[in-house]
Amino acid sequence: MGPHIRAVEEGYVKLDKNKSVSKAIRNKKMKIRCRKCFCSPCTVALLIVFCWIIWFLLWIYAIDDAEKYGKLVTLSMEVSNRRGAFCLDGSPPGYYIRKAGEGSESSWVIFLEGGDWCWNVTDCYDRSHTTLGSTAFGPEKVEFNGILSNDRISNPDFYNWNAVMIKYCDGGSFSGNLSFPVSFKNKNIYLRGIRILDTVMKHLKESEGLDSATEVIFGGTASGGLAVFAHADHIRQKFDPSVKFHALADGGYLPMIRNSSNYQNFMVSLQRVYNLHQVLTGSLNKACLASKAQSEAMWQCFFPEFVYPHIQSKIFVLDSMYNSWAMWYILNMRCHPSKCKSEQANLNRYQSEFLHLLSPIEASKKDGMYVTSCFVESQASEDTLWNKNVFDDQSPQQAFHKWYFSSAKSVQSKHIDCQDKFNCNPQCDWSTYAFNKIERKYKKKDFFVM
Question: Global pTM?
Fold first, then answer.
């Protein structure tokens, strides 16, 4: 074998000296040209522009991401002391806010946070050590979704409005007005929900621009939705009659219906809240209270079914005839209907009574409603549920849009889902998986009054 072939097989090739020199010269010239190209003013300018574009895109993304959230504003202790408005633990009240975009500075969505109730002093004491009883434990920001979202696709009508969520820290649906604190385990517990609501509204007017409002949607979810029924007219009176004012009660039409043991568990429980928090001295609907004065049943004005006929404000009721919270706590349904046949009879009874209680809303010429047959609790504050076409080829967002912007509200604003059986609508998830997920959530905070 010749030396040339052997060299190739052994992994190297001996090059001619002149060829090696010429190649080295070419490589050197190429490096010089590349260095000149890279360091040229044109290239440097392009790199600067490229870096600026990247920075700008990241900045825009950061702003957009920040605007998804409401930032916590805690009132000063001076204001809290002056108004006597305290969370359960004595901390000052607060709210989450995202300011409006250009052109919508006078438009407001004000939402009441939900989160059950505290039924007795022990419950309220335990709650005072959580974010639902104090602003000291609240996160600095919360993500705004649904009707509070800044996404023009999921919330096309109100994405650019001022969005406020008033922090729920009183345990009494923003309704209590007990003049003195309750002492428990060497700690003062304050039950002053209506003072919190009034103080925050006053602060929003004085410090955030609410005094210049031309449009206001006053809403709430779950226990906050129940508070909307109780206080819609009270809040309406804080604005000039020229202000376009609407209310949205989401998942708060919780009825006084007997449970599967033929016991009015929810009535007894909410009466305890009413008495403990001294709700009567708060701001319940005055017309409702007047109608109940002779019968000494003024506590009924804390329940949506009794206060609704007296509400003068325009109100939209968003709920389910199988509200998951109501199924668990009011009806005491503790197993999936497909596995507990007796529950189906209870569901049918509950549905029938619930729809009967909705008849005044259905007959209203000013109010609207969207009532599904889904196993859900609230829908207005979650993007997926707010925009889900459950029936009538409409989502809650679309139904609320038609009601809010229509001058003739009576007919096209009443939407009630199928009523054949609990799982009549295939758009509703009644799977065992969905039920078990809800079950795990509610078991963490279970209560049952005998």
Answer: 0.84
Q: What angle do CA 316, 401, 233 make, to 5 degrees?
A: 30
Strand partners, 109: 163, 217
**Cβ proximity of 424 and 418 under 8 Å:** yes
Alpha carbons 273 and 239: distance in angstroms, whole number: 29
Domain with CATH 3.40.50 in the chain: 58-443
Q: Are 116 and 173 in contact (CB under 8 A)?
A: no
3-class secondary structure, 183? strand
CA distance 352 to 338: 19
Contact 144, 95 (CB under 8 A): no
| 3-state helix, strand and coil shares in percent for the chain, rounded to the nearest 5 | 45, 15, 45
3-class SS string, 287-333: HHHHHHCCCCCHHHHHCHHHHHHHCCCEEEEEEECCCHHHHHHHCCC
User: And the tokens for 103?
Assistant: 């052109």
CA distance 145 to 142: 9
Distance spanning both ends of the chain, measured CA to CA: 103
C-alpha closest to that of 274 among 292, 247, 294: 292
pLDDT tens string 416-449: 999 989 999 999 999 999 999 988 888 877 665 5
pLDDT in tens, 363-412: 999 999 999 999 999 999 999 999 999 998 999 999 999 999 986 655 57
The values of phi and psi at residue 352, to 5°, are -60, -45
- Which 3 state secondary structure label does DSSP give 248? strand
Please give the class, per CATH, of domain 58-443. alpha beta
**Taking a C-beta distance cutoff of 8 angstroms, is the pair 191, 79 a contact?**
no
Strand, coil or helix: 77: helix
Give the whole-angstrom CA distance, residue 297 versus residue 289: 8
